[in-house]
């Protein structure tokens, strides 16, 4: 099974104005560096928690249908499509009545619906492709407070005067958001 990010988030998880204030930057001379830092911290927070903050689209590919298809991130916004290569190599879309999205655990998984059977697929590394959107929303207004607090505090640390100690406890603020599957 392979997971690819096919449409990364367009917006940042915190506003540039908030990030600039946390960096204690006057004007926009440091905006490029601040944006890089915010995006890096966002990626770090997403990795630690197993969540996507700003909406993005993933493709999960598999050799075929076998058991369940785990979702790559939480929260799930929508399953865009579930396609497969039939035995002749033609791309087919799997009907939504053949599978269910199980959200009883996070990040969840795709499972076979009761009474349904998975179709036969061509032998191919990408015989099955699940395309889905995950995230809390399209921009920083949807970012949960714990993520914002972590990112802005880490920006503040990064741009603090030399010799300022870093807090080893900031990462604990993400504990409430971790996906435990």
UniProtKB/TrEMBL annotation:
What InterPro entries does the record tag this protein with? Phage_CHP (IPR011738)
- Tell me what this protein is called: Uncharacterized protein
């Amino acid at each position: 099974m392979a997971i690819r990010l096919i449409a990364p988030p367009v917006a940042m998880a915190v506003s540039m104005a908030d990030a600039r204030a946390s960096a204690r930057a006057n004007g926009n001379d440091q905006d490029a560096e601040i944006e890089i830092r915010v995006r890096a911290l966002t990626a770090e927070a997403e990795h630690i928690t197993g969540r996507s903050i700003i909406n993005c689209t993933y493709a999960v590919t598999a050799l075929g249908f076998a058991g369940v298809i785990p979702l790559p991130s939480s929260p799930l916004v929508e399953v865009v499509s579930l396609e497969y290569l039939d035995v002749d190599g033609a791309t087919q879309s799997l009907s939504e009545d053949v599978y269910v999205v199980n959200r009883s655990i996070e990040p969840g998984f795709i499972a076979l619906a009761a009474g349904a059977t998975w179709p036969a697929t061509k032998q191919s590394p990408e015989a099955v492709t699940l395309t889905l959107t995950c995230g809390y929303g399209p921009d920083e207004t949807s970012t949960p407070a714990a993520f914002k607090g972590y990112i802005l505090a880490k920006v503040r640390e990064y741009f603090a005067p030399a010799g300022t100690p870093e807090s080893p406890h900031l990462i604990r603020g993400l504990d409430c958001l971790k996906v435990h599957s």
